[in-house]
Design goal:
The complex is a heterodimer of chains A (134) and B (246). Chain A starts with 23 loop residues before the first helix and ends with a helix. Chain A is an all-alpha fold. With 246 residues, chain B is an alpha+beta fold. In chain B, the strands form 2 sheets. A 5-stranded mixed sheet of chain B has the order 2-1-5-3-4. The longest helix of chain B is centred in the C-terminal third of the chain and has 21 residues. Classes of the chains: A mainly alpha (134), B alpha+beta (246). At the A-B interface, helix 1 and strand 2 of A face helix 3, helix 5, helix 8 and helix 9 of B.
């Protein structure tokens, strides 16, 4: 008998479809990615508004009226929560995509994250002002 | 008398088992005991057939990586005391790698990927020994130092669902190491390594789950290296449109 014969039989584990439920980090990731569906749907609604606007005041009024339905309001509330969650998670990941140095010291993550919130607040205020003043 | 803690270990012995199975051991619990020490206790007192890897016992060799309650950890850097409230400890071999035996996995794919990125300095110009060292400033060192702390433990591969779903993906540690050498001021092989980065199996296979950086025992942050190189790769693509190589 050849005693040097290998007994190797590496066992490969299959990836289950439910892999993203295995731990909370993966579930959070899927949730973050999932929110983009709401961001996308909201964008389509806005584009429809733009299209209706180009078709005249009556068409635009019809689009506005459709937005008053309870279903549309419910969708917008859910989409708002999804967009805020989407923004929060991406803001917290942003420091990974920028590497700023102060001399030989790497800049900490906090100011980068904060700068985005300040940017968001500034843009929101500007848009609000334009909407009020226009 | 010491308190007893139950430790579940996923066993797989290729000569007798067709698939892994779970074995439970009763280990005396002490406050200072690491998972690796618990395994040594099992091996010495309860079951000498158990296989696992270890070497330095001080979180630098990267040998004792394993799944502890579903998360990739270094056995020597993880302590039983942190699992008292969880009530159980389940040890499994590192996820996403084939199981060789018990807690030992086959890391050859990972090693091949590390080798592929040419993890060594390829100078722009060869210098004669008489010409002295390749000088580097502290600022130049800071650019890549974090990414040079990798101990090749493979925890980030076990944390990466993309590597599990797409085994050809170069993966977190190899790309972090690639970044480390590319960003070294003494290296001159960036263009050569960027070919690997730009491939679909390079940075573009990463969907930014980010768990790799979370589990890294050395704070290397492979997710950051990959995101930074997604921007670099996009830049490379645009430049190549205007400046074809040949």
């Amino acid at each position: 008998m050849d005693i040097s014969q290998s007994k190797r039989k590496p066992y490969v584990r299959q990836v289950k479809k439910s892999w993203w439920l295995r731990n909370s980090f993966y579930t959070g990731y899927m949730l973050r990615e999932g929110t983009c569906l709401f961001v996308g749907a909201y964008t389509v609604i806005l584009l429809c508004g733009l299209l209706r606007l180009s078709q005249g005041p009556e068409a635009f009024a019809g689009w506005l009226h459709a937005l008053h339905s309870p279903l549309a309001i419910l969708f917008h509330l859910v989409a708002l929560v999804a967009c805020l969650f989407h923004a929060k998670t991406w803001f917290s990941l942003a420091p990974k995509a920028v590497r700023l140095f102060k001399g030989a010291e790497l800049m900490p993550e906090k100011p980068i994250i904060m700068a985005q919130y300040i940017g968001l607040a500034a843009v929101s205020v500007i848009v609000l002002l334009i909407a009020i003043l226009a | 008398m010491a308190e007893i803690m139950e430790i579940e270990v996923l066993r797989y012995r290729p000569e007798e088992d067709n698939e892994p199975w779970t074995q439970r051991y009763q280990v005396p619990f002490t406050h200072e005991m690491s998972i690796l020490e618990a395994l040594t206790y099992i091996k010495d007192h309860l079951d000498s057939t158990l296989s696992y890897r270890w070497s330095c016992r001080m979180a630098i060799c990267g040998s004792c990586g394993m799944m502890v309650n579903g998360k990739p950890k270094l056995g020597c850097k993880t302590f039983l005391r942190d699992y008292v409230s969880a009530g159980k400890i389940k040890l499994e071999p590192l996820a996403n790698f084939p199981i060789e035996r018990d807690l030992v996995v086959d890391m050859s794919d990972f090693m091949q990927k590390l080798e592929k990125i040419k993890p060594y300095i390829i100078p722009k110009e060869e210098k004669d020994l008489c010409d002295g060292e390749y000088i580097q400033t502290p600022k130049q060192l800071a650019q890549y130092k974090q990414f040079s702390q990798c101990i090749n433990c493979g925890l980030c591969y076990a944390a990466c669902p993309q590597y599990a779903l797409k085994p050809e993906f170069l993966g977190p540690a190899a790309l972090a190491l690639l970044y480390r050498y590319n960003e070294d001021s003494r290296d001159g092989a960036k263009a050569e390594r960027m070919k690997l980065v730009n491939q679909e199996s390079g940075v573009w296979s990463c969907t930014f789950v980010g768990f790799c950086s979370e589990v890294c025992p050395k704070g290397v942050d492979p997710a950051a290296a990959i995101q930074l190189y997604k921007a670099e790769s996009a830049k490379d693509y645009v430049i190549a449109m205007f400046k074809p190589e040949d």
